[in-house]
Structure prediction request, 284 residues.
Amino acid sequence: MKRSAQAEPGASRGPGVASRWRAFTLIELLVVIAIIAILAAMLLPSLSKAKEKAWMVGCLNNLKQLETCWHLYAVDNNDLLPPNNSIMSIQGGVIAASVSWCPDHARTDTTTTDLETGVLFPYNRSFGIYHCPADRSTVENLDGTKLTQLRNRSYNMSQSVNGDPDFWQIPVNPPVSLPAWAKFSSIRQPSPSQLFVFIDEHPDTLLDAQFGNPVQLPFFSQIWFDMPADRHNQGGCLSFADGHAQRVRWKAPKVFRYLGQPPTAAEMPDYQFIQSAMRKPSDK
Prediction:
């Protein structure tokens, strides 16, 4: 049998024999890195948008669950809506603080003890449904020093549902109360599908558990008592008395400057939408 020829160890390779192993050149390595960077730049915005979308879906789910608790309370209490008594004045101080859907202190509470005393908590004992996933605001000390812990709560309840009338009358002649319905069956205008109950509120106006809106009087015209959040791609999430929840795209960013600030010209459609989704003194 004819033995096949083999190269002796150490023998040089001919010019037509390719080397089995070859390292990247510096140019090739830089090209690969550049391609990876381009792909990352293309994918990261999509990943970021997906994350923001997930936060929005989570926020809407939270509001739907709170809305279910709100309805269950009315069913269990002969049509009476959950009390909404946690009210603070723009000038400072508490107007009313008693039994409420959530009598906690969102800005300063480092535990959930007060949140658990709310009348809605027994219907869903998950703390997570009170907090928007996109809300990165943290609790603070009484002197305003910011801490690292996220707040327990991001949402407020509209004053239009069992809110102000028992506690505050505007000192005009005759006196005017901020209007609200005490019973679900009484809701007429706006209709249940147009009346919002819970809203994702701007962290800088979240002082109590109630989202307020001024009545249409000259000395209260066109100011934000409370301001909606815009953390969902310049949009906010709300739930409505008929049980549905939706994201509303605001016409302008919500920039807090001071309590009671007027809406900008660009914000007026947003302000008017909020007013249209709450009860006014003229509504029956």
